[in-house]
Amino acid sequence: MLNLLPAAAKKNSKFNLKNLKVYGLLSDFTTFHFYTYNPKTRTFSNDGTMCVGPTRENVCTDMIEGLLHLVTLGSYLTVFSLQSATKFLEFC
Fold first, then answer.
1. What angle do CA 63, 23, 53 make, to 5 degrees?
2. In whole angstroms, what is the distance from residue 5 CA to residue 44 CA?
3. Most C-beta atoms within 10 A of its C-beta, which of 37, 58, 80, 90?
4. Could you tell me which residues come within 8 angstroms of residue 46 by beta carbon, excluding any fewer than 6 positions away?
5. Taking Cα atoms as reference points, which of 9, 89, 68 lies closest to residue 42?
6. Nearest Cα residue to 36 out of 23, 48, 49
7. What pLDDT does 41 receive?
8. How many domains does the chain have?
9. Each residue's pLDDT tens digit in the chain (92 positions)?
10. Within a 10 A sphere around the Cβ of 87, how many other Cβ atoms?
């Protein structure tokens, strides 16, 4: 799976986004691994691992942490996309 992150970074370079970090999530629905690939330095980072409790009572509370991580990442990507779109429109 990690070999897909450099491939995504290469694809980004075709759209003038060559230094854009690529994020990945690997999960079996009980353990979630968050990764980042930085094409500028060509390095991988493990941004954290989250485990969801095995009991039904713990699943909901443990998933809150994962959901917050995904919402934060989604917010960052939305802001970056809007900034990129604004620069593109100014360029045209």
1. 20
2. 9
3. 37
4. 33, 34, 35
5. 9
6. 23
7. 92
8. 1
9. 667 788 888 888 787 777 888 888 888 878 888 888 999 898 999 988 888 877 777 777 777 877 887 888 888 878 877 887 777 677 66
10. 10
Sheet containing strand 22-27, strands side by side:
22-27, 31-38, 43-51
Residue with tokens 């989250």: 50
Type of residue found at 2: L
pLDDT at 78: 85
The string of DSSP letters for the chain reads -TTHHHHHHHHHHTTT-TT--EEEEEE-SSEEEEEEEETTTTEEEEEEEEE--SSHHHHHHHHHHHHHHHHHHHHHHHHHHHHHHHHHHHH-
d(CA 36, CA 10): 14
With 0.85 as the threshold, say if the pTM is over it.
Answer: no
d(CA 72, CA 25): 14
**Domain interval for residue 10:** 4-91
